[in-house]
Amino acid sequence: MDEIRAKIRAFRDERDWKQFHNPKDMAIAISIEASELLENFLWKPPDELDERVIEKRESIEDEIADIAIYLVELADNLDIDLLDVIEKKIEKNESKYPASLVKGSSKKYTEYSDKESDGE
After folding, report:
1. How confident is the model at residue 53 (pLDDT cuts 50, 70, 90)?
2. Residue 8: CB partners within 8 Å, gap ≥ 6?
3. Structure confidence at residue 107 (pLDDT)
4. Engineered SS bond to 74: which of 24, 26, 48, 83, CB 3.0-4.6 Å?
5. Those residues with Cβ within 8 angstroms of residue 56's Cβ, 6 or more apart along the chain or in another chain
6. Is 104 helix (H, G, I), strand (E, B) or coil?
7. Domains of the chain, start order
8. Residue 78, number of CB atoms within 10 A of its CB
């Protein structure tokens, strides 16, 4: 992670772009890039998605990379250890979504009743 963060910083700093990369604009940029990723799948029915991924692979990869680059830089700019907060979030999610309760379900944790969590 240190190496990729350094490459992102170097790219940004060689262009004197840090002045534009405040938290608000970085968050907006992440959202825009996520929308561009979604555009690759727009109006495609589920049975055409595998073919679409093959057809648009380079575009999908580029958008995923853009999202990741902006996310790494945003975390760096805010002095957030990205890998650490990912680990912490996984732990929170494990607590919210115990496998014994949610396996095979797409429900949000707020949709599980007390009866389900009690094993009834």
Report:
1. very high
2. 69, 72, 73, 76
3. 85
4. 26
5. 40
6. coil
7. 1-80 (1.10.287.1080), 82-120 (no CATH)
8. 10
Helix 2-14 vs helix 57-77: crossing angle, to nearest 10: 90
Residue 8 class from Cβ within 10 Å (0-12 exposed, 13-18 middle, 19+ buried)? middle
**pLDDT tens per residue across span 26-50:** 999 999 999 999 999 999 999 999 9
Q: Cβ contacts of residue 88 below 8 Å, gap of 6+?
A: none
3-state DSSP percent of the chain in helix, strand and coil, to 5: 75, 0, 25
In whole angstroms, what separates CA 65 from the centre of its chain?
A: 11
- Predicted model pTM: 0.85
